[in-house]
Structures are given as C-alpha cells and as structure tokens.
Amino acid sequence: MGGADIFDIVGSALSAQDARMGVIASNLANVDSIAPPGGQPYRAHEVVFEAAPVGDGATDENTPDPGVSVVATVQSNAPPKRSYDPNNPNADASGYVTGSNVSQVDQMVDLIDSSNSYAAAIAVLGQTSRIDQQMLSSFQVT
Which domain holds residue 70? Predict the structure, then answer.
C-alpha cells in the first residue's frame, strides 16, 4: 500500500462521516415534526456504509478503491410516535397526533460516534504527515 492510498482511505472515511452527520442534522431538525391526519410523519434516515477491502496489491479496473463509501440512505422502520393531544389541530378522530420516529437520544449518540470517527481520521492524517516529514528529513545531507 503506497502513501497516497492512506490519504484516499482517510478521505473516504471523512466523506462518509460527513454524510452521516448531515443525515443526523436532518433527523434532529425533524424530531418534533408531526403529520396531519392521514399524512405520513417524517421517518428517521440512516446511512448505510460499505467498506471496500484492501486487496493484495494487484489492481485492475474491477477492484474498488480501498476505503468506505455511502451506498444508501434508508428510512428507519421504527414506528412513529403517537401522543394523545385532542386539542391539537393535527389530531386524528381519536385525539392522537402522529409524530416522527426520530429518537433524539439515539441521534445524539450517533452524532458523538460520528464526531469521534471523524476526529480519529484526522488524527491518522496528522500522524501520516509526521511520518512523511520524518522520512524526508532522514534523507537530508548534513
């Protein structure tokens, strides 16, 4: 694996976590949204990652670049939240309001995890840069 490969791998990880944080932000923005009677409530979105394996060094056009990519964004299948609020104009005939299925706690845990993954990738870039600098300085003639 060459030096440029590590930058490609870390870059793909940063892009994937950036996409994940964007989805989390959208979910958190819709945590309190409600649906009108008969309408569909906002459903939380989840990012699906796919890792490309690091090969044996032989590359061809069919070998994917090593790293991680976002293959899809899917909707959560968790049930929507229902609360009894008969005075709400969006309540159904039974007095229930249907809201999004976004769990604020779960989204905050995902945000912390994504932020930590992003920071770890940045740390790998920093360490790689330090190693490159040390290698270059070892070739200097004094």
Answer: 3-138
